[in-house]
Amino acid sequence: MLHNLLPLFVAVPLAAAFLNALIGKRIKGFPDWLSGIATFFLAGLSIYSVVLFKATGPIMYKVGGWMPPIGITMVMDGLALLMLVTVNIIAFLVSIYSIDYMERYTQKWNFYCLFLLMVAGMNGVIISGDMFNLYVFLEIAAISSYALVAFGTEHEELEASFKYAVMGTLASSFILLGIVFLYSITSTLNMADMSRELAGKSSSNIVLLISVLFLTGFGLKSALVPFHAWLPDAHPSAPAPISAMLSGVLIKSLGVYAIIRIFFSVLGSSPQVLSILMGIGTVSIVVGGCLALGQWDFKRLLAYSSISQIGYVVLGIGLGTPLGILGGVFHLLNHSAFKSLLFLNSGAVEYSTGTRDLKKMGGLKERMPVTANTSLVASMSISGIPPFNGFWSKLIIIVACIQAGHFMYAFWAVLASILTLAYFMKVQRYGFFGELKKGLAHVKEVPFFMKLSMTILAIICFLGGLLLIPGISGDLLGVARDAVLTGQDYAGIVFGAIK
User: Fold this and answer.
1) Is residue 24 in a domain?
2) What is the pTM of this model?
3) 176-195, pLDDT tens digit by residue?
4) 173 belongs to a structural domain
5) Which of 42, 64, 176, 438 has a CA that sits 20 to 30 A from residue 141's CA?
6) How many structural domains comprise the chain?
7) Contact predicate 100/447, CB 8 Å
8) What's the domain range around 304?
C-alpha cells in the first residue's frame, strides 16, 4: 500500500487538470477549489512521505506490476523526497495565491488546467526511474509552462513565450539525443540498469559526448550561464504565480535535479564533470548578480537573481563533498521559498500599482504593510542575512569551498552575496521605503488569499534554518545529501527496494 502512494503524485494533478477542463468553465469557483484541494493533498502527501521514508527507506513502484528493467519504475530516494516536498508545498501556496490574483484574467479554468499539468510533469520528472519517461514528463511540464508564460496574450508575453519555447525545444533536442546515444550503448532505458551497465564499461568518447549533450540540454533548462538568455524575458512576462513556479521550482526540477540525478546516479560524477559544474555555478553566481544590479524592472531583477542563486546550488553540488552537497540541496530548498515569495511580492505590487518599474514606486510600506514586510524578509533571506534560511545554506557552501581548498570560489560566492544585498536594498529603498508618491495614494493592500500565501512563505524563510537542527536535518536534508553522495549505488538501492 505504501508503494502504491507514489503514482498519486502524477495521477492526482492529471485528474484535477482533466476535471477542470471538463467542468471548470461551467461552475464558477470550481477551478479554485479543485486546484486548492489537489495541491493541498499533494503537499500533505509529500510531508507524509518524509515519515514513510524514515520508516521504510527508498520506495519503488512497478507500473503495471512489470519488474525492472523491462517495466517502468517510479523511485523515491532521499533526493526525490526533498524535491517532492519542495515542489508540492510551493505549488499549494501558489495555487492559493492565484485564487485572487487570476481574477483579472479570463479563462481562469484554463490557467488551472495548465498549472496542474505543469505540477504533474515536475512530479513525474522527480520520481521517474526510467530515462525516456523522465523526458516525457519533462516535456509535459515544459509545454505547459510555454503556454502559461503567454497567458496574458499581450505582445510582451507572446514574444517571451516564443523565445522560451524555441530555447526549450532546443534543450529538449539535446536531451533526447543524449538519451538515444545512452540507449545505444546500454540497451536499456531504466536508469538503475543504465548505471549498472555503464559501471562495467570503460569510459569512452561516446560517454563524453552524452555528458556534453546532457550538460547543454539541462543547463538550458536550469538557465545557467551561458545558457540563460531566455529566462530574463520569460519569467517577468508570465503571471506572478507562474513566475514563482518557474523560478521557484521548475528550473530546479527540470534542470538542476535532472543534472544531479543523471551525473551522480547514472553516468557517474567524474572529477572533470564536478569541475565543470563548479565553474558554471561560479560564473552564474557572478554574472547573474551583476546583471541584476542594473535592473529597474522588479520582476526582471528577480529573474537575473534566479540565475545567480541557482549558481550557488550548482557550486555546492559540484564540490562533491558531503558538506558542499548538503549546502547545495539546502540552498535549493531555501531558494524555492524566498524566490517564490519575492515573485509573489512583485505580483502583489503590480496588482495594486499597475507597474513593475521601481522608479515609479516609493512609500508602498505605508499602503501595503503585509507585502512590504514579507518582501523585506525574503530580501534578507536571499541576501544571506542571519537568522533567515538563506544565510545558513550560503554559509555552508562557502565553508565547504574553503574546506575543499577552493578559496577563489568562496571569494566569488561572498562577493556575489554582497551584490545581492545591494540590489535588494535598492528594491526596498525605491519600492517600499521613502515617501508615498502622489500617484500611489489610491493603492491598497492585496486580497486575503494573496496575503496568506506570502505570509506563510515569509514564516518558512524565517524558520527554515531549523532544518539544520540534528534530528530534523537527517529526515530531509541528510537523506537528500546521502542520495547524491551514494549516487553510484543507485542501481543497488532501486533493485534492493523491489518487493
Assistant:
1) no
2) 0.92
3) 999 999 988 888 888 888 88
4) no
5) 64
6) 1
7) yes
8) 271-468
